């Protein structure tokens, strides 16, 4: 309200300073200066000493109700002539305000640097072989200038929400919040997206204080699901130690993560899920997400099966299933379809998209509100198989789109026998997906709460979702330790 009242007054004050007969227009009266003056006014309302003294005087006068022409006092001339009045601003204070401006600009650059590069030093590389830049040094732009006073308060720019309700914070607190958000167990990459609205949307989901917290009830559900997923892997490992298992060990959190996506999107109306994935973790997904009866899965390990029997050999990692299950979160019946895995890595991706599109078509669903696809990948296959890139490029075409897919990459930092340093040329295995400007979160699975929060906030939460609201792909890559099981298979 105050601002609305002041603005006409502010402009009236400025307008009246135009010399009636002078042909030279005042530079601050040009159309393009409006935003600048308003920005300064915003900054002044937060902290009067953050603007130049002459502006401080002007804003004070205008807000005190000075009549047009009296709020403004002209700045000192650039050249000093004996006839001109002596400058009212001392050299010391000019220098101080220049320092102030420079410091604010430095802090703004630092905030932006964390948004762009914070993921480079996030805790994502348990083996020390996968640093984003293929080196593990701190990017220089993330180091605050030595001269900056850590206890000084700085006005936060509009491009960050780290303040929550606060408009200014001490530099020490700014850096601490940025490090928690961008350099912990979630490394979010989004500043390459050339859509300001999407970037703001993501900042709103990641930056406000407290967004990575969970209620006790949510924590209990997460723990129960983690136990079910972990115990399943342990049981297979203990019971059939010499069988191929393509285990999910170390990344069991993928199961609660998938269930989180399903829970929250089904509340928003999704009734049918089409899932595609390779062999790794497939039995766990069959058991805990698609709810295939455990006895059916275990039966396929039976050494007495004949070659022609269902489940013999590798088949248990290749067959698909479709089940209708009751989702306890939404109390709704949903259909979960795990598409058969043809062994040729990633070949299932376009098949899943085709099946999803066909289901949406049959349901007269033109925006993907009732059927969605989820694709799981291995790190080496995601980076190395051309069909991934091709499928991503089809994803926004009007005749092919499925209105957003959640992709999850299980990154065990090995592709058969090859480690990432000699497996691909890009820093991250997910870089190929950047062609379509999708948001990418790199997460460390041993800290599941931030991981689930990040996933939930982008793909499927409450009233607005990145996937559903903006029809956008969401990509999550989970880095985990390589286990003996990976190396054997
Ligand atoms: C197109 C294709 N090429 C090669 C293979 C053989 N192969 C099976 S698993 C595998 C390694 C895949 O590594 P990654 O994608 O990282 O998944 P991981 O098994 O490590 O989870 C390879 C090369 C295959 N199945 N399909």
Automatic annotation (TrEMBL):
Presence of keyword Transit peptide: yes
Cofactor: thiamine diphosphate
Domain Dehydrogenase E1 component: 225-436
GO cellular component: mitochondrion; oxoglutarate dehydrogenase complex
Limits of the 2-oxoglutarate dehydrogenase E1 component N-terminal domain: 27-65
Ranges for region Disordered: 69-96
Keywords: Oxidoreductase, Thiamine pyrophosphate, Transit peptide
GO MF term set: oxoglutarate dehydrogenase (succinyl-transferring) activity; thiamine pyrophosphate binding
An individual GO BP term: tricarboxylic acid cycle
Lineage: superkingdom: Eukaryota
Keyword hit for Transmembrane: no
InterPro entries, per database record: 2-oxogl_dehyd_N, 2oxoglutarate_DH_E1, DH_E1, THDP-binding
Family designation: Belongs to the alpha-ketoglutarate dehydrogenase family.
PANTHER family, alphabetized: 2-OXOADIPATE DEHYDROGENASE COMPLEX COMPONENT E1 (PTHR23152:SF4), 2-OXOGLUTARATE DEHYDROGENASE (PTHR23152)
Biological role: The 2-oxoglutarate dehydrogenase complex catalyzes the overall conversion of 2-oxoglutarate to succinyl-CoA and CO(2). It contains multiple copies of three enzymatic components: 2-oxoglutarate dehydrogenase (E1), dihydrolipoamide succinyltransferase (E2) and lipoamide dehydrogenase (E3).
Protein name, per record: 2-oxoglutarate dehydrogenase, mitochondrial
Lineage, highest ranks first: Eukaryota, Metazoa, Porifera, Demospongiae, Heteroscleromorpha
């Amino acid at each position: 309200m105050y601002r609305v009242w002041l603005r006409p007054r502010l402009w009236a004050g400025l307008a009246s300073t135009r010399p009636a007969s002078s042909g030279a227009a005042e530079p601050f009266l040009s159309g393009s200066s409006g935003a600048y003056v308003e920005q300064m006014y915003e900054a002044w309302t937060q902290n009067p000493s953050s603007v130049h003294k002459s502006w401080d005087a002007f804003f004070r006068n205008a807000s005190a109700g000075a009549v047009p022409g009296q709020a403004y006092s002209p700045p000192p001339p650039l050249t000093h002539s004996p006839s001109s009045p002596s400058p009212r601003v001392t050299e010391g204070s000019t220098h101080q305000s220049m320092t102030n401006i420079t410091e604010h600009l430095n802090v703004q650059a630092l905030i932006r640097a964390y948004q762009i590069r914070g993921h480079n030093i996030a805790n994502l590389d348990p083996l020390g072989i996968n640093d984003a830049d293929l080196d593990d040094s701190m990017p220089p732009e993330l180091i605050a200038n030595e001269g900056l006073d850590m206890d000084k308060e700085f006005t936060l720019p509009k491009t960050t929400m780290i303040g929550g309700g606060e408009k200014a914070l001490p530099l020490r607190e700014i850096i601490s919040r940025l490090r928690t958000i961008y350099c912990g167990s979630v490394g979010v990459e989004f500043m390459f997206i050339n859509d300001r609205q999407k970037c703001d949307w993501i900042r709103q989901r990641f930056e406000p204080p407290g967004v990575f917290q969970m209620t006790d009830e949510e924590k209990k559900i997460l723990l129960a699901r983690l136990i079910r997923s972990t115990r399943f892997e342990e049981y297979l490992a203990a019971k059939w130690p010499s069988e191929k298992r393509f285990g999910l060990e170390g990344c069991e959190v993928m199961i609660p993560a998938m269930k989180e996506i399903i829970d929250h999107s089904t509340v928003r109306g999704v009734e049918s899920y089409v899932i595609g994935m390779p062999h790794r973790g497939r039995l766990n997904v069959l058991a805990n997400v698609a709810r295939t009866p455990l006895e059916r899965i275990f039966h396929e390990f039976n050494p007495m099966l004949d070659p022609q029997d269902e489940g013999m050999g590798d088949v248990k990692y290749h067959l698909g299933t479709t089940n209708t299950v009751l989702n306890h979160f939404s109390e709704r019946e949903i259909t979960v379809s795990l598409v058969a895995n043809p062994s040729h890595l990633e070949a299932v991706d376009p098949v899943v998209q085709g099946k999803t599109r066909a289901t949406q078509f049959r349901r007269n669903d033109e925006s993907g509100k009732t059927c969605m696809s989820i694709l799981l990948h291995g790190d080496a296959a995601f980076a190395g198989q051309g069909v991934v890139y091709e499928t991503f490029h089809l994803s926004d075409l009007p005749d092919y789109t499925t209105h957003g897919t959640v992709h999850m990459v299980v990154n065990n930092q090995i592709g058969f026998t090859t480690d990432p340093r000699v497996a691909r040329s890009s820093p991250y295995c997910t870089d190929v997906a950047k062609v379509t400007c999708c948001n990418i979160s790199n997460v460390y699975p041993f800290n599941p709460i931030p991981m689930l929060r990040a996933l939930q906030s982008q793909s499927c939460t409450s009233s607005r979702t990145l996937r559903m609201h903006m029809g956008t792909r969401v990509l999550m890559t989970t880095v985990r330790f390589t286990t003996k099981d990976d190396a054997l298979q």
